[in-house]
Amino acid sequence: MEHVPRELDPPRPSVTDDAPEGYDNLDELALTPISLQERQSGHRRSITSNPAESELLDEDIEAGVAGIDELAAPPPDENPREDRLGYHQSLEEERDIERRQSAKERPEERLPLREKLIVELYTTSWLIFFSLLGTLARLGVEWLGAYPNAPVTTKVIWANLGGSFVLGFLQEDRALFAEQRGPNLSSQSEPEKGHDKIQAEHLAVKKTLPLYIGLSVGFCGSFTSFSSFMRDAFLTLANDSAGKDNVVVPRSAGWSVCAVLAVVIIEVAVSLSALATGAHFAIALLPILSKLPKLNSAWYLNPLAVLFGYGSWLCVVFLAIWPPQNRWRGEVVFTIVFAPLGTLLRFFLSIKMNRLIASFPLGTFSSNIFGAAIIGLAYGLQHTSLQPAGREVGGGILGCQILEGIMEGFCGCLTTVSTWVAELRSLRKRHAYIYGVASIGVGLSLVIVICGSMTWTLGLSSPACHV
């Protein structure tokens, strides 16, 4: 019997016409959902051969969301319909599409200045608001995981799991931000004519919504922390990572190397698994979510985001004016004061740098490495005497709390694991291994050089504040 090839699904575009210029550099936005990517039958065909995709890209290149890897990378599930053959569109291919389409953009097609400023205001407001929520969620999860005889003593592992899970869910979701509702949205059968194009348009528009950018870049990026991951790996290497009420037992250098390898492997494996599990969860909930009312954030949520985002940040700054003395305020206030600064810096670094090298996201890499260096410096200062007489460790209670805010707030939000594992999942295998090993190798080396020099020479003392 003659084999009749199945109609290929149109691949996904990467950017749309609703976001300001430059946002397309964010890899959170550039990571394209696999569920609507093109299936192949024996070989890979050109990613720009589909007319629907080219038409969407011509309209979308001015959107300004290229470079945000939370939005650019494909969802973790490459084949949600469980077809026999699936097509994986890599992050490098997304960058190639954006680069060629950017060359066709005309200045008169760009967003008017007023609309661009309004969208930027809404986007930064959501980023600030969700950075506060993500930081509080990370602190809460770390506190829950700090119990006696915990099997895993790295505090940030559960936060990295949660943030990666949420990002995987958001990347794969096709219902929460959909313009249309109904049974066709959740259908897993062969799509009817034109249905895939509608889904492609929906997924492209979703990536430019300020609310979606706030959730993927702001909340997930702040919930996870690459710098805390590097700090925990260093403390394991230095045999100083005992959990709550646990006794540190001396061990040889060889065992310390085994311990730090275990921390690295567990953190990466757990985060990658959580990313895939979040995508599977989105697929499983699609029939339920497709029945929910349409979420129209443009009319009422975006204006409220300006109040909630900037207003909440201002209130926290006022709280920090009076030096916090009790434990809870000392641990939290300065942390959430510095949190939005780290998120916004990571956001703009991604916009400017992620598209420079398609196979190596420089924006995310720079954020993670810079944050790892800062957390190593702050941790060393917090645990050493800053007074000539050596009587006050970390500059006293107030200095200790400020350094804690820099580590957990600024560095915690400047660095991200959710975006990092999404990029690892989306890059071609060789590039992914190079990028992953370089990130861990350089980040851990900086922490060892900066903080290790204090640990193994002067020695570290208990901080003046409760951490």
From TrEMBL:
Instruction: Please name the source species.
Output: Lophiotrema nucula
Name of the protein in question: CrcB-like protein-domain-containing protein
Which Gene Ontology MF annotations are present?
A: fluoride transmembrane transporter activity
TM ranges are 209-230, 253-286, 298-322, 328-349, 356-381, 393-421, 433-458
What does this gene product do? Fluoride channel required for the rapid expulsion of cytoplasmic fluoride.
Membrane topology is:
Multi-pass membrane protein
User: Where would you say this protein principally sits, based on its record?
Assistant: membrane
Bias kind Basic and acidic residues: ranges: 1-10, 78-109
**Subcellular location, record wording:** Cell membrane
Q: Which family is this sequence assigned to?
A: Belongs to the fluoride channel Fluc/FEX (TC 1.A.43) family.
Q: List every stretch annotated Disordered.
A: 1-109
Of the GO CC terms on this record, one is:
plasma membrane
Q: Which reaction is this enzyme known to catalyze?
A: fluoride(in) = fluoride(out)
